[in-house]
Amino acid sequence: MFSFFKRVKTVVGSELNAMLDKAEDPVKMLDQFMREMEADIRDAEAAVAKQIANEKMLQKKVDEAQKMVAKREEQAIKALEAGNEDLARRALEDKKAQSATADSLKESYVRAKQDADSLRAKLDEMKSEYNQMKLKKDSLKARAQSAQTRTKMNRAMSDIGGDQSRQGFERMEEKVLRFEAEAETSEDLRSSNRSLDDEFASLEKNSGVDDELAALKKRLGQE
User: Fold this and answer.
1) Integer Cα distance of 49 and 2 in angstroms
2) Which run of H or of E encompasses 17?
3) Distance from chain centroid for Cα 39
4) Residue 15, pLDDT above cutoff 60
5) 54 phi and psi angles, rounded to 5 deg
6) CA–CA gap between residue 109 and residue 101 (Å, rounded)
7) Domain 6-160 has what CATH class?
8) According to the model, what pLDDT value does residue 2 have?
9) CA-wise closest residue to 143 among 30, 219, 22
10) Is the model's pLDDT at 4 over the cut of 50?
11) For residues 73 and 29, is the Cβ–Cβ distance under 8 A?
12) Which of 51, 88, 103, 157 is the 20 to 30 A CA-CA neighbour of 59?
């Protein structure tokens, strides 16, 4: 009954390492261990309550037997005072029997009280150990959660700076550079085409002016 949390003590030792090796969730497992410890405490409390009830029952019987011893003695005195020696003798005989019963019950009561006191002390020790384990559990849970968070962050940072991500950025950079080069080339072609068109337009414009100038000279007789 009172194993002082043997299961939990074992787990905190070798089984904790095995648990971590199996990649079990430490937070969930610690909560499970605490529930098991709480169940042990409830069982111990029930056993202590039962033992205390047995102690009180024996104490009550001892008191009743001792009261009967005193009663039979008083009755023996009354019988003698009344001149009834036979009745006094029977009262004293029953007194002797009640006294033996009281002594036997008292021995049982003393043992029951010692057992109850021992169980109380063990229960107090269990509760004290449980509180210590609870504090340790909270600390371990915080450490486990912190470690998991750091692991996730490190993995995320590793992925950000990883070869695959870096190669992806390099490919995108090359695409952007290619797009920019294509845009500049298209602008150059457009500028080139625009200049050529402008020259032809200017040529056509100059031809019109020259014709008009020749006609005007002819009319003025300057040819």
Assistant:
1) 14
2) helix 16-21
3) 18
4) no
5) -65, -40
6) 12
7) mainly alpha
8) 45
9) 30
10) no
11) no
12) 88
Q: Do 199 and 191 touch, CB atoms closer than 8 A? A: no
User: Do 159 and 165 touch, CB atoms closer than 8 A?
Assistant: yes
**193-211: buried (b, 16+ CB within 10 Å) or exposed (e) per residue?**
eeeeeeeeeeeeeeeeeee
What is residue 14's predicted lDDT score, i.e. its pLDDT?
A: 54
Residue 146 has pLDDT above 90, yes or no: no
The three-state secondary structure class of 5 is: coil
The CA distance from 118 to 106, in Å, is: 18
Question: What are the residue ranges spanned by the domains of the chain?
Answer: 6-160, 163-223
SS3 call for 2: coil
Q: How far apart are the first and last CA of the chain?
A: 138
CA dist., res. 81 & res. 113, Å (int): 41
Angle at 124 between CA 119 and CA 130, to 5 degrees: 125
DSSP code string of 22-90: TT--HHHHHHHHHHHHHHHHHHHHHHHHHHHHHHHHHHHHHHHHHHHHHHHHHHHHHHHHTT-HHHHHH
Separation CA 38–CA 34 (nearest Å)? 6
